[in-house]
Amino acid sequence: MVPRFLDGVERWPRGDAVIDALSRGVRALPLRGGRDLLHGRWLGHPVHPLLVQVPVGSWLSAAVLDLRPGRAREAGSLITVGLAAAAPAALAGAVDWADLHRRQQRVGLVHALANTAAVGLYAASLACRVKGRTKAGRGLGFLGLTAVATGGLLGGHLAYRQAAGANHAEEVPQVVPAGWHRIGSVAEFPAGRTARRTVDDVPVLVVREADGDFYALAERCSHLAGPLSEGTLEDGCVRCPWHGSVFRLADGWNVQGPATSPQPVFDTRVVDGHLEVRLREPGPAEDDTAQ
Question: CATH assignment of 172-279?
Fold first, then answer.
């Protein structure tokens, strides 16, 4: 029953106008470098799941204290901590949500509404406690925890069923055979343009520079599997056409989000007038400031 409900949320189009307006607003926020910080590019995966641990943990702990007599004051303090921590967690989640696919955004909108309801309920709970209405404060707190649990259910669907925030290029090192693979003659790759080839059905982006050097990356963007071969080349990097993630051609490093994972990179060589590629073994992360 629950999976059917969640699948129905994915297919429900009536909130799309609201989604369009909200996502435009989030993308228009003047965050500059803070956008990548909120995406979690520095962390290597989305930061939103990390931030939500504070409000969820605080509110769950408050519920435990509310089950014990004489601990209303401590429970109120934990609710206050949760309310304070909810804002940065929500902002990080909104920045990620604005760069998702439509079905993911539909689930994400209901996820956000559930969590907004939770914040409202906990704020009302805290107000009741301040006024000495402890019983009402407890009741509102338990309702808030129910809303949080609903939001967590929807968030789990986003992460595990819809793969929002997952690394969509992770499988490449697992499925590409070792060794060199011939993917075409040198003449097939015009300088300064992107090209798409495959290695055992794994798409590969190939770029030939004006000086004759070749670069090759996994072609599906690690953010949401966008086609990098349809992207634009910029200063030794490729920009994904779907959500604007930027990857360095030399090593696949994600120099700009929303992607939080680098692209798998291939070594290249020319043999008898043909280009061959080999998946590069992973090494220590390189400084993303090196250009």
Answer: 2.102.10.10
